Amino acid sequence: MNSVVAELLGLFAEVLPRLVRISAFIAVGVFAANVAVAFGLIRYLAGLSGYLTRPANLPDEVGTAILTTAASTTAGYATLAEYRESGLLDDRATLVAVVINTFFGFLQHVFTYYVPVLIPILGATTGVLYVSARAGIALAITVTGVLLGGLLVSERNVDRSALDDIDGAGPETDDRDGRERVRDAAGKSWSTLRRIVPRLAVVYTLVIAFVTNYDVESLTAVAEPLTGVLGLPSAAVPVIAVYTLDTTAGAVAIEPLLGETFTPRTAVATLLIGGILSFAVSTFRRSIPFQYGIWGASFGTKVIVVNTALKLVFISLTVALLLVPAW
């Protein structure tokens, strides 16, 4: 009995400092991110959208949707849907605009999730490498959209006369004063912390206990042929499984193994592979309800197929680059 108590106390002694440190970073990061969003910082970052739409043969007004996506994915897609329904864009031009949207949709997650949540969990080196990889993937997809627009979109795909029937006011004006914006940012931050930290505590405790008491490498040796082909440790298998269901839990699962079992490159490659497998889960959980709600089943399916195909291609290329032994 005493040994069990001692073991539990030792476990909590190891988990608690890490949890407190990570929770503090998350709290500061999430609050700063919400304040930045409240004061419109992301909108300024999206101001370059016009330089992308013009080479893609899309109207400057489409940049409004891209700008809006950086602050709200739902609002950005809804704006594009309005352009399509009005006849400003046909299906081909709309798909190109959706692809170009990718990096700007990613921007909001940099400020609200990747930087304040994942980097504190993964640490500076692995965390920054992971976020940079995801940013590079999103940017590559956006650039691909610009190139496709230049090749496949022309005046036949755009009816500029439809602009007369579209409300060009853009997003609603935010008339909150500075104090109200900060207060709202604090409320959103507290809501995020209440959702993340308890789950973080449970998963972290289970992971530390598992890693402490069991040889993860030997338990997953059966997967060695698969992971060996990619040059990943066999411990990547349970991490990928966890990441497939929950990205934050996947990051928590790999963190205790950094430096010993995983290098920063193999860790990021493992998480990206988990991201590929998580598409199947996220498609049914989020993509189908969201895209079908915005576009309807027919065009929504096209959007899902195009988005998924491009992500698979560029994530696979990134994993291959990370696992090249020359650097």
UniProtKB/TrEMBL annotation:
Superkingdom classification of source: Archaea
Positions of transmembrane segments: 19-42, 62-81, 93-115, 135-153, 196-214, 234-254, 266-284, 304-324
Keyword Electron transport: no
Keywords: Membrane, Transmembrane, Transmembrane helix
InterPro entries, A to Z: MJ0871-like
Official protein name in the record: Nucleoside recognition
Organism: Halorubrum aquaticum
